[in-house]
Amino acid sequence: MSRCVEVLLGPPWSADVMRGAHVAVVDVLRASTTIATALANGAAGVIPVADPADAIAVGHRLGRERVLFCGERDAQRIEGFDLDNSPASFGPSVVAGKTLVMTTSNGTRALHAVAGAASVCTVALVNRTAAADVLAHADGDIVIVCAGEANAFALEDAIGAGALVDALLTLVNRVELRDGARAAALLYRSVAGRLADAIASADHAQSLAQKGFAPDVTRCAALDTLDVVPMLRDGVLVLSPAASPG
Fold first, then answer.
1. What is the pTM of this model?
2. Cα dist. 235→15, 88, 158, 172, 182 in Å?
3. How far is CA 7 from CA 30, 33, 41, 84, 202, in A?
4. Which of the 8 DSSP states describes residue 149?
5. pLDDT reading at 48 higher than 90
6. DSSP 110
7. CATH of 3-226, one of 2.60.40.1190, 3.30.565.10, 3.90.1560.10, 3.90.226.10
8. Are 149 and 204 in contact (CB under 8 A)?
9. What ranges make up the beta strands (E) of 29-75?
10. Tell me, what's the pLDDT at 115?
11. What is the DSSP code (8-state) at residue 152?
12. Which of 97, 144, 154, 185 minimizes the number of CB atoms within 10 Å of its CB?
């Protein structure tokens, strides 16, 4: 029996398409990359929330000593928060053992749109192969959700989704690609030989570079540098057991 793979290339996302499927949320710049980095560096978990007020409420309920408030608006750290959304900020000495409560402009919003999925993970270029391996071993259809930028299509997320589709095709014997997945895979293959340049050319990448985050763009464009897969369990992103580091 073949497995269907679809890519939702930008918001709004169809809840019907995701119902009962294994969902991968892609926000290359930067939430998916940062979440993977944080968990690889020893964070206990990442709780995605919709807005700063929700983050504060969750943090105080868990206990301030256990929690770091993380997130951005307009790419900048939210006032009063501990960390922004730059993967460079989430080193082991900062996040190890901590629960991160995170709100971002696009990625955490996408994570809140996946109700009804059989499972949910976050994927970036940095953990593309690890995520493909986990998804390949799960039964059922796969839906890849591109977080987009400012409620619209984002080139870097479509490329990231295509990279994931390309990896899945090498791991799953019988795959039926829907048009969104086919388009994303074709896009990825067209730029795979110059991936960093392609990501850097995206509108959001250029905006981040103008705000001083060019190193983030370079880091987020690296392929398969992390062997971790964040999985959503009871509202918390934690490491998939099949992809735990070490």
1. 0.96
2. 18, 25, 25, 28, 31
3. 19, 19, 29, 28, 19
4. B
5. yes
6. H
7. 3.90.1560.10
8. yes
9. 45-48, 67-73
10. 81
11. B
12. 97
Mean pLDDT score of the chain, rounded to an integer?
95
Measured in residues, the chain has a length of 246
For the chain, domain boundaries: 3-226
- Report pLDDT for 246: 44
End-to-end CA, the chain? 34
* Three-state DSSP class for residue 58: helix
Query: What is the C-alpha separation between 111 and 97, in angstroms, rounded?
Result: 23
Q: Per-residue pLDDT tens for 126-174?
A: 999 999 999 999 999 999 999 999 999 999 999 999 999 999 999 998 8
- The first and second tokens of residue 198, run together, are 């392609």
Sheet of 76-77: strand order equals 76-77, 67-73, 99-103, 45-48, 236-239, 230-233, 119-123, 22-26, 142-146, 3-8, 175-177
Could you give the C-alpha distances from 176 to 6, 90, 135, 172, 243, in angstroms and in order? Answer: 9, 38, 15, 10, 25
Closest CA to 150 of 217, 92, 79, 74: 74
Whose structure tokens read 């060019």? 214
| Cβ 36 vs Cβ 134: under 8 Å | no
